[in-house]
Design goal:
The N terminus is likely disordered. 21% of the residues lie in helices and 23% in strands. The chain has 300 residues and is of the alpha+beta class. The protein is built from eight helices and 14 strands. An eight-stranded antiparallel sheet has the order 1-2-3-4-9-12-13-14. Strands 5-6 form a two-stranded antiparallel sheet. The protein has one domain: Extracellular Endonuclease, Chain A. Bound molecules: 2-acetamido-2-deoxy-beta-D-glucopyranose (NAG) (4 copies). The site of one 2-acetamido-2-deoxy-beta-D-glucopyranose (NAG) has 3 residues, from loops. This is DNA/RNA non-specific endonuclease domain-containing protein. InterPro entries: DNA/RNA_non-sp_Endonuclease_sf, Endo_G_ENPP1-like_dom, ENDOD1, ENPP1-3/EXOG-like_nuc-like, His-Me_finger_sf. Keywords: Signal.
Length: 300
């Protein structure tokens, strides 16, 4: 424990982007407000992280220690304002030191503590790999600077092909922003997660960070404007999508458009009802996965 305090102190003193930020590990109880009806998704097993930054809970992540990446992150959407923060990447000391004071802290400029390296992804895993850092909870879906900066933690990130991250997946994030901003009247709860390969998992570095085959996202906005335009009739109260993260995957789940720009070809996103997403999740995880309480059907 004293080592982690020393580590945190060193980081605060020497890092160029220091911050007093915090995160809790092991229980969603302190951050249930990020789930519709305080009900975290059912069917997926992992390590819950209540992501804390500047002494406030910002979102929630179900982390997979063996994969060194999240199963999903859950957050409440708010209309973005201002510019994307400069990336100051952080890690979760409590994954390395169970007794550590809860605090998401920036990576030090030099070598990283070996217990941190063992317990989670570090920047070196992504540097010079063929994958970019794909946010589960994107900074684009938040208003305050602190909420946006808090998304730059590697516990909120999976290896994502640039063809997806800078292409169809980014378009999906814009589309969700536009739809929710225009027609969601109350809270919008969003969960974004991964679908692993069925066989032959891919990894960054030597079995360090698992690469997902697909990325999915779903929102639940129970209180919305009923005067929806025709093209958004199916988009409320809940809607979902799955995006390809491997241009060579088969086309059963998400077909490939041959007219997409070359750098984005094979990274299509397919929008679909929540029930359809849950069929694919059940098939891949071999268990029923429920993203929202009563499939977001309840009145609020
Ligand atoms: C990344 O690749 C560049 C160019 O090959 C090399 O100069 C650099 O040292 C590499 N960085 C790391 C961290 O491996
Ligand atoms: C989010 O959507 C709103 C409403 O369409 C739009 O005005 C705004 O520019 C969008 N923000 C971003 C960052 O795309
Ligand atoms: C609902 O949408 C309609 C059509 O876009 C708009 O005229 C109306 O002001 C909206 N109502 C609310 C409560 O936002
Ligand atoms: C897709 O397959 C081609 C041909 O086998 C290969 O060159 C390429 O690296 C593969 N791409 C990915 C993202 O696996």
């Amino acid at each position: 424990m004293s080592r982690s305090y020393a580590l945190a102190a060193a980081v605060l003193v020497f890092s160029g982007c220091w911050c007093i930020c915090a995160a809790d590990v092991g229980d969603f109880a302190p951050c249930l407000q990020f789930f519709y009806k305080s009900w975290p998704p059912k069917g997926l097993a992992g390590t819950p992280i209540c992501q804390r930054y500047f002494n406030q809970y910002r979102f929630a992540t179900l982390y997979s220690r063996p994969r060194r990446s999240p199963w999903f992150s859950a957050y409440v959407y708010s209309a973005p304002a201002g510019k994307r923060p400069t990336a100051c990447w952080k890690f979760e000391p409590q994954l390395a030191y169970p007794g550590a004071e809860g605090s998401m802290i920036p990576f030090p400029p030099g070598p990283v503590d070996q217990n941190v390296v063992d317990s989670q992804a570090v920047e070196l895993d992504y540097i010079n790999s063929t994958y970019s850092r794909g946010h589960m909870n994107p900074s684009l879906h938040h208003q305050s600077h602190e909420d946006r900066a808090a998304t730059f933690t590697l516990t909120n990130v999976v290896p994502q092909k640039a063809g997806s991250n800078d292409g169809p997946w980014e378009v999906l994030e814009w589309t969700i922003n536009k739809t929710l901003e225009a027609y969601c009247l109350g809270e919008a709860y969003v969960v974004t997660g991964v679908i692993p390969y069925r066989i032959d998992e891919r990894w960054l570095k030597d079995h360090r960070v698992a690469v997902p085959e697909y990325i999915w996202s779903a929102y639940c906005c129970p209180n919305y404007n009923n005067s929806l335009p025709e093209e958004l009739k199916d988009a409320f109260p809940t809607y979902a999508a799955i995006g390809r993260n491997d241009c060579n995957s088969s086309e059963e789940i998400v077909p490939v458009s041959q007219t997409a720009k070359k750098q984005f070809r094979g990274y299509d996103v397919r929008q679909m009802p929540l029930e359809t997403l849950e069929v694919y999740l059940k098939d891949r995880f071999n268990t029923v996965v429920s993203v929202f309480y009563e499939q977001c059907s309840g009145s609020d």
